[in-house]
Amino acid sequence: MSPLLAQVQIRERTEDSCVADNGFCPGWIADNFDRYVDPFFQHVLLTVVAVAIGFAISFSLALIAYRRRWLINPVTQVTGVLYTIPSIAAFFLLLPITGRGFLTATIALVAYVLLIIFRNVLTGLDNVPDETKDAGRGMGLTDRQLLWRVEVPLAMPEIMAGLRIAVTTTVGLTTLAFFAGAGGLGEQIFADINFKSNVVAAGGLAVALAALLDGAILLAQRAITPWSRATAVR
Amino acid sequence: MNQFFDAIEFIFNEHESPAGGAQVGGLANMWELTWEHLQLSAASLAVACAIAVPLGLWLGHTGRGGFLAINASNVGRAVPSLALIAFFVAYIGVGFTNLTLALVLLAIPPILTNTYTGVRQVDRDTVDSARGMGMTGAQVVRRVELPLALPLIFGGIRISAVNVVATATIAPLAGVVTLGDPIINVNTYGDEGRLAAALVVALLAVLTELALGAVQRAVTPRGLKLEGGSRWRRLAIAMPNNRREAPT
């Protein structure tokens, strides 16, 4: 039997009355905080790596499909199926091929974010007004210059919105990555799912991480699109 | 590849459990698990629709609570499903009803956000002409705003349904024996049972997506279909900070 699926009653080792009664014990959380530190950073690493790889793939696919429109439907359908397959199923479907660990978890998480980012990048590029593109061409920009200096910057709000959705979703799915043997905060939740303090500490850290990464991307978006801030303030 | 053949074999033939004693696998056993999985998902989705659709219609119609409706799905996404279920297990308890409640909370945000967005997206001129024809508020909702918002509402239901089917896989943690049972109790079912369950869950999610996608197309008013736009646009979910979002 796999050691992962052994339920460990982590609270039985103490004699604290709050812990013994399975209450919500801030004291216990403070004393045992170090048990969440490693899983938290595993969680951050899994999320950031998966979203970064997913972004690189789907951003490239979107740029290609933007010029070659016939690619939009096939790419959407394939990434749509990947998006639909529950990640917990994907972990076990990959297990016979890639084995337990970081790689399996990352592949399943990457597969999940492709559709979200692809769709948003493409929506962003499609929303760039034709007059703006014409003005760029009139200034003598080549197609490549137009893409990187006009279209991509103007698509940033949608691209970043997609990235925010992808990051918060991935933080949530990474709580299941321990099924693939990749650790993360989910492993701590699962370690004693009946213990209130444990569930609140590990679950709370996951929610906090999602909020933190979401806020970080929002700040990055404000920094790289100063013009949108100018219009937002009315 | 052999492991996949073993898993498929597990779906069709009974095996003795590796833990000894009971027989596991085979169509009867798999169907039993699938049926529980479907019941749990359908119950949660039905309750979520009964709450989120009327609420979204009302908020959208009155234009109130836009911040709440738009941000519901952002907040919902930030709460991991495992954390939500663990919270229910630790604080409220295990069992079908408690778990249904947890899944309802999971399913509400996308439906609420999409219903609200769907109603707000209806052309204001259309609503004004309906009023000009003498329709009451309730008639405007029922005959104009609801039909025109249906594609987006079903888009939300579709997102929630797939999400609920996926999350019902971890239901055995809360004492409900769904298709997640072979995944979580691997020593009872064995590795081939676990892989078999993963295959069936994946298939179930894809079928849910396809079925609700067909419903979504069927309920789209003909006028909206003629407007065109490529297929993938119809999949669009409400995005935060989308600069094209109608001001409310």
Give an overview in words.
The complex is a heterodimer of chains A (234) and B (248). With 234 residues, chain A is an all-alpha fold. Chain A is 76% helix and 0% strand. Chain A is built from 11 helices and no strands. Chain A has helices at 17-20, 26-31, 34-67, 72-84, 87-98, 102-126, 130-138, 143-174, 185-191, 196-224, 226-232. In chain A, helix 3 (34-67) runs antiparallel to helix 8 (143-174) and helix 8 (143-174) runs antiparallel to helix 10. Chain A starts with 16 loop residues before the first helix and ends with a helix. Chain B has 11 helices and 2 strands. In chain B, strands 1-2 form a two-stranded antiparallel sheet. In chain B, strand 1 (14-16) and strand 2 (23-25) form a beta hairpin. Chain B is elongated. The chains are: A mainly alpha (234), B mainly alpha (248). Chains A and B meet through helix 4, helix 5, helix 6, helix 8 and helix 9 of A and helix 3, helix 4, helix 7, helix 9 and helix 11 of B.
Mean of residue pLDDT of chain A?
86
Major sheet description of chain A: none
Q: How many domain modules of chain A?
A: 1
CATH class of chain A: Mainly Alpha
**What does the overall shape of chain A look like?**
elongated
- Using the CA coordinates, give the radius of gyration of chain B: 21 Å
Q: Multimeric state of these chains?
A: heterodimer
| Total separate domains of chain B | 1
Sheet with the most strands: spatial strand order of chain B: 1-2
Mean pLDDT of chain B: 84
Tell me, briefly, the overall form of chain B: elongated
Runs of chain B in which pLDDT lies below 50 for 5 or more consecutive residues are 228-248
Count of helical stretches of chain A: 11
Count of discrete alpha- or pi-helical segments spanning 4 or more residues of chain B:
11
Q: Tell me the strand percentage band of chain B.
A: under 5%
CATH topology of chain B: MetI-like fold
Kindly, what is the distance between the CA atoms of the first and last residues of chain A, rounded to a whole number of angstroms?
Answer: 62 Å
The strand count of chain A comes to 0
Distance from first to last alpha carbon of chain B: 54 Å
Percent helix of chain A, as a range, is over 70%
Summarize the helix and strand pattern of chain B as letters.
HEEHHHHHHHHHH
